[in-house]
Automatic annotation (TrEMBL):
<dbReference type="GO" id="GO:0050567">
    <property type="term" value="F:glutaminyl-tRNA synthase (glutamine-hydrolyzing) activity"/>
</dbReference>
<dbReference type="GO" id="GO:0016740">
    <property type="term" value="F:transferase activity"/>
</dbReference>
<keyword id="KW-0808">Transferase</keyword>
<dbReference type="InterPro" id="IPR023631">
    <property type="entry name" value="Amidase_dom"/>
</dbReference>
<dbReference type="Pfam" id="PF01425">
    <property type="entry name" value="Amidase"/>
</dbReference>
<keyword id="KW-0436">Ligase</keyword>
<dbReference type="InterPro" id="IPR036928">
    <property type="entry name" value="AS_sf"/>
</dbReference>
<feature type="domain" description="Amidase">
    <location>
        <begin position="25"/>
        <end position="445"/>
    </location>
</feature>
<dbReference type="InterPro" id="IPR000120">
    <property type="entry name" value="Amidase"/>
</dbReference>
<dbReference type="InterPro" id="IPR020556">
    <property type="entry name" value="Amidase_CS"/>
</dbReference>
<comment type="similarity">
    <text>Belongs to the amidase family.</text>
</comment>
<protein>
    <submittedName>
        <fullName>Amidase</fullName>
        <ecNumber>6.3.5.7</ecNumber>
    </submittedName>
</protein>
């Protein structure tokens, strides 16, 4: 069983389908592993031992009867603790909600359960998903499994660590400015933020309703496709939900990238990079070129103004949601969130409306700029993870912008995939980001899968990940 902790969903799923692996045994071993090593990593707030065991028994009975729901049948999955799971505390990483127990599942959780996934626990996060570090004053800091002194990224840090450390085979995260992709890159796994509206956010406590996304975090690109297929689809309970029926799964992987046009915007994606990060992403781009892709430089108009608009929109919307809580529980928030609310309260209605107008203009201009390319490429993280506790609370509002190149995809609402692309500083992972046009998730995943399978160092990388 030991060697299976770091295996892919695809591999473990096949073992279950062939009755070579029991969902009950798999779940019990994952629970034992969590008990053994998560005391140090702190990736979970709640471990759902009773519920997970009960679900595993049911799925094993179905397996023995020849009923397999799909590739997630019997697979332990973690859920970020800002997403509702029926009968389990949903703290949102805050002491304010520590005793709140929802009476229904979020739509994405319902879909995972229907697909046969076993919800193994609720993953730790940056308080209310409002930060890039997952340093949590209420439930403890989450530690990067590659270096326990380093942050894992955030806000979905617990989800990333659970997957990277073999405590779950996949996880759900949320992404408002990079909260899936940044921790995925810093922990050496795959993460995808879907197109805005593809995945329902019903049952997820909002940060910014016009920027929030829910998406999967996995160890391989193919696994991300499996999870995204399971959670996608229209939901009348989410007003932003979009009716889009195209499947994400791809049966035939790409063996080369001939005919694929990849755009580079050096003004943003390659600005202010750590030297080793730049070397890793440059090598990755060269590898994509070797696989047949055409690399094309492009320009994005009004980029800096659009990114500033994201800050205005996000902080306005989060203050709007939290205002009733702040009136009563303001003293219970972490120090870094208090600074964020101070910034948000100073934003006027005119500023907010103008930011949304500029955003819409930027989306139109970007679609024009992308006419001659299929995807954009760049680094996911621009810097290595910094030490836990090294950034003052009043400086934390800028962490997502200083650590990563992820906010661009959120202001656009376009899909974005991060894939590991190298090792920096001798032992820390870094990520490559692909940004697509609306609802081009399948193409993004196919490109990422082709790179992942044909990159010569990837098997060695996965073996090193298993050692950590």
């Amino acid at each position: 069983m030991t060697e299976l902790f770091m295996e892919s969903i695809s591999t473990v799923s096949q073992f279950i389908k062939e009755k070579r692996l029991s969902p009950v045994e798999l779940t019990n071993q994952i629970l034992k592993r969590i008990s053994k090593i998560d005391t140090e990593l702190n990736s979970f707030i709640t471990v759902m031992e009773t519920d997970a065991t009960k679900q595993a028994k049911l799925l094993e009975e179905e397996m023995m009867a020849g009923k397999i729901r799909g590739p997630l049948h019997g697979i332990p999955i973690a859920v970020k603790d800002i997403i509702q799971v029926q009968g389990q505390p949903t703290t949102s990483g805050s002491i304010i909600f520590e005793k709140w127990v929802p009476d229904e599942d979020a739509t994405v959780v319902k879909k995972l359960k229907k697909a046969g996934a076993i919800i193994i626990g609720k993953a730790n996060l940056h308080e209310f998903a409002m930060g890039a570090t997952t340093e949590n004053p209420h439930y403890g800091n989450v530690k990067n499994p590659w270096n326990l002194n380093k942050i894992p990224g955030g806000s979905s840090g617990g989800s990333a660590v659970a997957v990277a450390a073999g405590l779950s085979y996949g996880a759900l995260g949320t992404d408002t400015a990079g909260s899936i992709r940044l921790p995925a890159a810093l922990c050496g796994i795959v993460g995808i933020k879907p197109t805005y509206g593809r995945v329902s956010r019903n049952g997820c406590l909002p940060f910014s309703w016009s920027l929030d996304h829910i998406g999967p975090m996995t160890r391989t690109v193919k696994d991300a496709a499996i999870m995204l297929e399971a959670i996608s689809g229209y939901d009348s309970k989410d007003t932003s939900s979009v009716k889009h029926c195209e499947s994400i799964n791809f049966a035939d992987p790409l063996i080369h990238l001939k005919g694929i046009r990849i755009g580079i915007c050096k003004d943003y994606l390659f600005d202010d990079l750590n030297e080793e990060v730049q070397l890793a992403i440059t090598r990755a781009i060269e590898r994509l070129r070797e696989l047949g892709a055409q690399i094309i430089e492009i320009e994005l108009k009004n980029l800096s103004m659009a990114l500033n608009s994201l800050k205005v929109i996000a902080q306005s919307e989060v203050v709007s949601f939290h205002q009733p809580l702040l009136n009563q529980y303001g003293h219970l928030y972490g120090d870094d969130l208090k600074y964020r609310f101070k910034f948000g309260k100073a934003i006027s209605a005119v500023d907010y409306i103008n930011a949304q107008r500029l955003r819409n203009l930027f989306i139109e201009q970007t679609l024009e700029s992308l006419q001659n390319v299929d995807v954009l490429i760049g680094p996911t993280n621009s810097q290595p993870p910094f030490d836990i506790g090294s950034v003052l609370p009043e400086e934390a509002i800028n962490n997502m912008f200083s650590l990563g190149k992820t906010p661009l995809a959120n202001i656009l609402g376009f899909p974005a995939l991060t894939v590991p692309c190298g090792i920096i500083n001798g032992h820390l992972p870094t990520g490559m980001q692909l940004i697509g046009k609306p609802f081009s998730e399948k193409l993004l995943l196919q490109i990422g899968d082709c790179y992942e399978r044909q990159e010569t160092w990837f098997e060695q990388y996965m073996a090193k990940l298993a050692e950590n």
